[in-house]
Amino acid sequence: MDNEKVYIPYLETNLIDSCNLNCKGCTHFANLFSDDDFYKLEDFKRDVKQLSSRADILRFRLLGGEPLKLKNLDQYLKIARNYLPQTDLRIVTNGLLIPNTPQYIFDSLRENRIVVDISPYPPTLKILDKIKNILKENNIFYTQSTAGGIETFTTFLTLHGGHNPQKSRAVCINDICRFLRNGKIYKCPVDALSYKLVEHFGIKDFPKATGVDIFAKNFSTLMEHLDDNIELCYWCNETAREIQWTPENNPKITDWLANPAEVENFLPK
Questions:
Q1: Rounded to an integer, what distance in angstroms lies between the CA atom of residue 188 and that of residue 211?
Q2: Measured at the alpha carbon of residue 184, what is the angle toward residues 49 and 15, in degrees to the nearest 5?
Q3: How far apart are CA 84 and CA 132, in angstroms?
Q4: Which of 58, 125, 231, 266 is the residue whose CA sits 20 to 30 A from 112?
Q5: How far from 18 is each of 33, 38, 105, 122, 251, CA to CA, in Å?
Q6: What is the model's pTM?
Q7: Residue 139, Cα to own-chain centre: how many angstroms?
């Protein structure tokens, strides 16, 4: 710990926004992105280098989308470990690509001491033993996000900003999920990525993202503001709607809404 630096207990970022498993209601809106949407390697290096000089990061999770889609994933891992030698670095994956992952990726995971966090969706469970055996054979540490499988998602967004942020944050699974994207840190991945939802469905008057510039002179002071309410918190429902997990390649805006019925009043005619 360096008392001159900002302490960030948890940070995550998308290395690539698209996914091979497009979940309905994905918190990262993966089924709205394409393979062209990824964190450019030079930008990732710039941002991680900057953060290493200004923050102590306890845990940094690299996800997506599906990070194993990146052919040069090993380069991202090397950069992250080089600048963050003491940080708990993790790759979050649904694991479906692990049986066909090139050996050099496994070598990089092991050499850079990266833990693999497996998200056990129903398709993953079908080959979970195979996935774990491959990781064991390559001496790679792994965890499983839940003891069983992921059977449901929760949706919480609304199309108006009249909600109680204290209540919405009390049930929010993203309230402490600081998210790095292109030189800024956001309170949560939804704040950073919901612009894609707005673009795709033509939503009007949705709150703009509230990111903290990691290059700002008053970075430490700005980071404190992320512990409070941001505008998006007023657009998150006080209770979430639970939906059954399913892949969805033709997403609808109602996939992300706590109350699907409100879409009739707020979408453009």
A1: 10
A2: 70
A3: 26
A4: 125
A5: 5, 8, 19, 19, 14
A6: 0.94
A7: 26
